[in-house]
Amino acid sequence: MNFEIIFVILCLAAMLMALIRDKMRPGIVLLSVVVVFMATGIITPKQMVAGFSNRGMITVGLLFLVSEGIRQSGALTTVVKKLLPGQGATVTRAQLRILPIVSGFSAFLNNTPVVVIFAPILKNWAKRVGLPCTKFLIPLSYATILGGLCTLIGTSTNLVIHGMMIDRGMEGLKMFDLAYIGIPITLVGLAFIVLTSGRLLPEERPDTFEDEEADTQEAAGMHVVEVVLASRFPGLKRKLKNFDFKRRYGAEVKEIRQGGQVITDNLGEVRLQQGDTLVLLADDAFTRTWGDSSVFLMMTNGREIPTRPMPVWKKWTALALLIIMIAGATIGELPAVKERFPGVKMDMFFFASVTAVVMAWLKLFPPKKYTKYISWDILITIACAFAISAAMEESGLAALIANSIKSVAGQMGAWGALAMLYFVTLVITELITNNAAAALAFPLALETAAKFGVDPMPFFIAICIAASAGFATPIGYQTNLIVQGAGNYRFTDFIKIGLPMDFIVMVVSVSLIPMIWPFVPAA
Length: 523
Known about the structure:
It contains 23 helices and five strands. A five-stranded antiparallel sheet has the order 3-2-4-1-5. Helix 1 runs antiparallel to helix 2 and helix 4 runs antiparallel to helix 17. The chain is globular.
């Protein structure tokens, strides 16, 4: 073990600690580590910036705009309202109608806007029909995660792995390559949710502010509003008493839900974090002004949050553009199309670019504000992930770990190594972020495959699934964080249903992946 390997290990350990402690945004944490690697000569300046021009990373940014166009068109809202059953519905019946559709949408759209759209509607509907919303919000988040496993564009992690493959001269993933494993996982996962969520998820806990709402109903226009803080909220990491929320937003904070705890006393001493749910006392002007703001991930007040008026033709146009994008990227991968248009690579990058620009021209999202719909921290995290992978390879750390995996796998061979790599990736994604987990796991997958002399595709598929399928903690995936406060869940609620989900998905993945992508000798 040389000095470079030791140095990279120490830097990565510091990175993991910083991500777990959540003192800074993931993007700046990874960027800091990458700059240190460049300054010490572990990687070159060219390797440092290579990720910022990667097609996979840019595709993720374009898909943020496509998802926003769909969200603002109101098409998904219309669909979900037609799906919800009326009075007399049961939890099982409602889940069977809703969750497969949610998974279907999240296979082609960013998971966050799907949850942001569905969660308030589901919560209000559940209250209206007398069902506990706690039986629906964690399943909603899990359904989006499962759906994201089925396609190349279902989650940013898949595009990160795809981009890294292309960087190394490989063909990359096709649109529906992951469907062979993603669909079986989704079917098994949804069945588990429907069969067990009634027992494993809690009954709805009473909201501590309901009595206060009743006391203030006589005050003209005042009502309770719940908001989830986004990464652009300006008061993150600050104590509430040092951030004049009422002056800035014209609303009073009555309760904070943070990390599974409901806080009603000494609110001024609470440091605000991304994903916190704030319960506010506000008037109608607040929802009109901030209902579509990027400082809040989600807002609900028991009624419809006002959105921009959108003509019906735009709803259908948004859906048509999405279908054309998916179909175009799929057909563009066919050999006959590649031969017919040799000068144009009609892949997902091509069609996502065209779709995003057309949506801007048609004003499906406000083109003058397009930058606010892109999560720049995620893009920086993804871009830096490429440089971190390069550092692990250049230093020899990836080869060292791959040797250790081969030794431990022993008689189990490549199959055992696949299971070990999956488990390590899953643990990392539960503790930090999915894209950082992919960054650390990709060079390990490449080197492990090389040690066994087999094609690396089974290992790439395994880390695609493991880095996205984080169910056991609210911090493992952003959608879990959103529903935690909205459903007033405790940390243990995720563990009760999420740990079995992690185990089930791992068993299905490790069992099926080698059958679909055999361990054939490397070309």
